[in-house]
Write a structure and sequence with these properties.
Strand content: 25-35%
Order of helices and strands: HHHEEEEE
Number of helices: 3
Shape: elongated
Number of strands: 5
Oligomer: single chain
Strand order of the largest sheet: 1-2-3-4-5
Length: 112
């Protein structure tokens, strides 16, 4: 009986101590921008950083056209207008970025 009560008291004390530490932490402020949801959605992809480096970090919308075992294709829009097409070949890590409307290929390399 005493062991049960002692275990209950020790558990309650530990839980109270854990909650006290969390209460003293200051919440971190996150500044949301229009690009944040898009960045969070695609930023884990291996080609994302190179795409942003090549086309700039403007207010782009990524529309996934194809994503299968061989390749991933995105159409990148800005203000409702298609600006770029990206093709990422998964086997070789080759990234191709094509500027739509007269720009042609602006990037065609293997990324690491």
């Amino acid at each position: 009986m005493y062991k049960s009560i002692l275990a209950l008291v020790v558990s309650a004390t530990m839980l109270t101590a854990c909650n006290h530490d969390l209460a003293n932490e200051k919440p971190t402020e996150q500044k949301e921008t229009k690009a944040d949801p898009e960045r969070n959605k695609w930023s884990s992809l291996p080609e994302y950083d190179e795409i942003i480096e090549q086309i700039g970090n403007e207010d782009y919308s990524f529309d996934k056209e194809t994503d299968n075992a061989d390749k991933r294709v995105f159409l990148i829009e800005q203000n409702g207008t298609k600006r770029y097409k990206t093709i990422f070949v998964k086997k070789t890590n080759r990234l191709k970025i094509i500027k739509i409307n007269g720009g042609g290929a602006i990037y065609d390399e293997i990324i690491k």
